[in-house]
Here is the input.
Amino acid sequence: MDNYNFGKYNEKALEDNFIKALKDPDFVKVVNSLDVPDKIKYKYTSSLKEIASNIKTCANCKGLAFCPYEIKGVYKDTQVENNVISFVYKNCPYKEKEIKDKAYLKNIYSYKMPKEISNASFKKIYKDDSNRLETIKYLKTFYDNFSKGKYYKGLYLYGNFGCGKTYLISALFNELAKKDIRSTIIYFPEFLRSLKASFNNPEDNYNERFDEVKESPLLLLDDIGAEKISDWARDEVLGVILQYRMEEHLPTFFTSNLSLKELEDHLMITNKADDKVKARRIMERIKYLCEELKMISVNRRE
Here is the structure.
C-alpha cells in the first residue's frame, strides 16, 4: 500500500473509531463542547474517551477520600486554541473547597509538630471532660479579645501526657489564622537541637530562623521542660526570645508536663547561686507573659 493510500486508510480508521465512540452520551458531550472540525477531533478519540469516563466517575463522587485518581481531586480536561486541542489538569470542586478551607495554613509556621495540629479547630475540641473546660474557656476568651485587637496574656498549660494541651492551643492559633493572624508553633526540644546543629552549616540561616520564632505575633513553645537544658539553651535562646516578646507585648504560649515550680528547678541546671538567679529570671518573664493553668485529663493517645 503506497503512502497516499495508507494515509487515507489511517484517516478512515480514526473516523470509524470516533464514530463508534459516539455511542457514549458523555463522549458526545465532550466532543460537542469543542469548537474545532471533526477531523481534528478524530486524532484525540482515545483521550476524549478518557475524559468522558472521568465525567462519569466525578458525577458520582462523594468526596476526595473516594477519588480514584493518582492526585486526589485533579482531573484531566480539554482546552482549544487556534484549532488545536490540548489537555490540562484542573481541580474539582471538592479540591477547590479543600484549598480554600486550608488557606489559613499559610499563616502558621510549625516545626516538628504532628500533622494533626493543622486540622485542629474549636469545632473539633472534645468537651466531654470537665477538666478541660477551664482551658477551653480561657482560649475562647483570648480569641475574643485578640480578634478585637486587645492584648491578653498567653497561657502556660501543663498537665499529663496526651491530654490534648498542644491540640487545644493549636486550635486557637488555627482559628486566628483564619483571620489572617500569623503564628508559630515549635516543638521546643527539637528546635534547640536544630539551632545548635545550624552553627556549622552556612546554608542554614540561624538568625533568620531564630527571628522567625522570636518575632512571631503568636508563639507556642511546645513541651518545654522536655529538652536537655544548657546555659546556651536557657540564656541565649529561651531568655532572648522571652525578653523580646515581653518588651514587644507578644502573646506567648507554652505546653509542658512540668508546673512552673518544676520548670524553674529544671532550668537551674546546678545548685549554684548564679544558676538559681538566671532560672528565676526566666521564670519572671514567663509569668509576665502567661497565666499558669493545670489540666489533668484523659490520655487520648492511648
The longest strand covers residues 74-81.
